[in-house]
């Protein structure tokens, strides 16, 4: 992953990824360029997935009265 991509926000990475997909869908991209776009897209996809997983992990934790994070278990009402 390039250093430039590591600092992207999720939203910026998604915009770049959508731009790459649009270029590839147009179909008039030379093979070498398409391969480069594909590699960039895979890096951006991995970055977005990692950011989503980090948020998901944070969403499953809740801070207790001592300021410590603990797993959040939501009980379903019957």
Structural class category:
mainly alpha
Radius of gyration: 19 Å
Uncertain residue ranges = none
Helix content: 55-70%
Sheet with most strands = 2 strands, antiparallel
User: How many DSSP H or I helices?
Assistant: 3
The SSE string, one letter per element, is: HHHEE
Proportion in β-strands: 5-15%
Specify the overall morphology: elongated
Please report the total strand number as a whole number.
2
Strand order of the largest sheet: 1-2
Rounded average pLDDT:
86
Could you walk me through the main structural features you see in this protein, from its secondary elements to its overall organization?
- The chain has 78 residues and is mainly alpha-helical.
- It is built from three helices and two strands; from the N terminus they run H-H-H-E-E.
- It has helices at 3-6, 10-26, 31-59; strands at 61-63, 69-71.
- A two-stranded antiparallel sheet has the order 1-2.
- Strand 1 and strand 2 form a beta hairpin.
- Helix 2 runs antiparallel to helix 3.
- The relative contact order is 0.13.
- The mean pLDDT is 86.
Summarize the structure.
Heterooligomer composed of large and small subunits. The chain is mostly helical and 78 residues long.
Highlighted features:
3 helices; 64% helix; two-stranded antiparallel ribbon; cytoplasm; hydrolase; single chain; Exonuc_VII_S; 2 strands; 78 residues; mainly alpha
Question: How are the SSEs ordered, and which strands pair?
Answer:
Layout: H1 3-6, H2 10-26, H3 31-59, E1 61-63, E2 69-71
Antiparallel strand pairs: 1-2
Helix pairs in contact: 2-3
């Amino acid at each position: 992953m390039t250093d430039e991509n590591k600092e992207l926000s999720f939203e910026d990475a998604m915009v770049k990824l959508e731009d790459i997909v649009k270029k590839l869908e147009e179909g008039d991209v030379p093979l070498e360029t398409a391969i480069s776009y594909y590699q960039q897209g895979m890096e951006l996809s991995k970055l977005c997935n990692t950011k989503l997983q980090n948020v998901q992990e944070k969403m499953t934790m809740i801070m207790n009265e001592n300021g410590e994070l603990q797993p959040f278990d939501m009980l379903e009402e019957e």
